C-alpha cells in the first residue's frame, strides 16, 4: 500500500479532468469504476460540480452553523490523493476492499464526513484509486486540517499491510521506527510530472540515470544546507533571547539592590531625627507628670490639649485636640484624658516623621526605577535591532539558497530538454511542461450539454443541505446517497 498525497489545489475541474479522463485529453477509458461518498448523486461528472458548489458556499455554511467567519482564508479546497496496491495483490483485490481502504484513509485524515469521489483506474499494472476530496465540510463550512497528514498516512499504510499479512514496503517500516526514536526522516520527493515525462521521452537509461542521480544529490545537499541554516538561525535567536533576558534580570536586580541601599541611607539620615523626637517626647512626659502635681499645672496640661480655633471660630480641629465644651470639661476634670491627649499628640508627631521618611524613600526609589526603565528600554531596542539584523542576514542566506534551487532546476530542465531533443525526431518534439489549470469558476460547474438539469441538481443539493435535520456539530451524519434512495 502506497498512499500519495498530492499538492492541494483550488480547481475541482482540473483535478476531476485528470482523474476522470486521460492525462492529455478528456476520456474515461481508463476509469474502472467510481464511488461517491457523502454526495446525493452517483454521477462522477455531477459529483465534482456539487463539491465545487459546496466549497463556494463556505461562508454561508459557516454562518448557518454559527461559526465565526474569521481566521486566515484559503482557496485550496481540493485534496487529491491516491492509494496504490502492489501488482501481486491485483488478483485477490475487490472493489469493496478498495472502497474500504479509501474510507479508512478518510477516517485517518478526519475527513469521513466530507464529500469525496473515489475513482479507480486500470491503466497501470498496480491497482490504484484516486480520491477527490472536498476539504470544506458540507455541514459547517470548516476547512479540513492538514496537520501531520503524511505521517498519519504512512503509519496507516504500514498498519494496513500488517493486517493483510505481508509487508511490501520495508523502507517505510524503518522510517517509522526512526521517527519513533526521534530522528528526522523524510524520503526523497518525486520528480515533477513534466520532468519525469521528459526523462521517459529521452529514452536513454544511462544518461537519464546520471541526470537523476546528480539532481537528487544536489537536492539532498541543498536540503541539508537549508536545515543547517534554519538550525543556525534558531540557535542564534535563542542565544540572543537568552542574553536579552539575562540583561533584563541584571538591570532589575541592580535596581532592586540600589533601591534597598537608598532606603537604608534615608533611614540612616532619619535616625537622628527619631532619636531627637524620642528625647523630646520623653521630656514632655516628665514635664507633664510634674505639672500634674499642681492645680495650675493640671490646667496648663489641659489647655495644651484644647484647639481654641476650632472651639471658638469653627475651624477644623487638629486631630487629637479637644474641640467641644464637653471635651474641655473632660480634660479639666480627668487626669487620664489629659494623659491620653498627650499620647495622641506624640503619635501624630511620630506619624508625621514617618511620612516624611517614606516620601524621601519614594523619591530615591522613583529616580532609580526611572533609570531602570530607561536601561530596560535601551536593552529592548538593542535586542530588536540585533534580532532584525540577524533575520535580515538569514533572509539573504535563504534567498541565496533559493537562487541555488532555481539554478539547479534550470540546469536540470536544460539538460533534460537537450537530451530529449537529441534522441527524439524533430517532427515529434513538443514542450514537456504542462499548462496551468485555472481556478474553478461558477460557470465551470455547468457542462456544455444539459446545463439546466445540472443547475437544478445543484440547487436541489443546496436545498437538501439547508433543510436537513442533521445539521450541527453533534448530529449524526448519514450518507446523502442513502437519504436520496
Number of helices: 14
Q: In which order are the strands of the major sheet placed?
A: 1-3-5-4-2
Number of strands: 5
The shape, in one word, is elongated
Give the low-confidence spans: 470-485
Reported for the largest beta sheet, the result is: 5 strands, antiparallel
The CATH architecture designation of the domain at 2-146 and 446-484 is: 2-Layer Sandwich
First-residue to last-residue Cα separation: 33 Å
Indicate the mean pLDDT: 82
Notes on the structure:
Helix 2 (44-56) packs across helix 13 (451-467), helix 7 runs parallel beside helix 12 and helix 8 (205-291) runs antiparallel to helix 12. Helices cover 62% and strands 6% of the residues. It is built from 14 helices and 5 strands. Among the domains are: 2-146 and 446-484, 2-Layer Sandwich (BirA Bifunctional Protein, domain 2), CATH 3.30.930; 249-391, no CATH class. The chain has a 5-stranded antiparallel β-sheet with strand order 1-3-5-4-2, sandwiched between helices. This is Relaxase/Mobilization nuclease domain protein.
Strand and helix map with partners:
Blueprint: E1 2-5, H1 12-19, E2 31-37, H2 44-56, H3 58-65, E3 78-84, H4 95-108, E4 116-121, E5 128-134, H5 149-164, H6 170-180, H7 193-202, H8 205-291, H9 295-304, H10 308-313, H11 325-333, H12 335-423, H13 451-467, H14 480-484
Antiparallel strand pairs: 1-3, 2-4, 3-5, 4-5
Helix pairs in contact: 2-13, 7-12, 8-12, 11-12
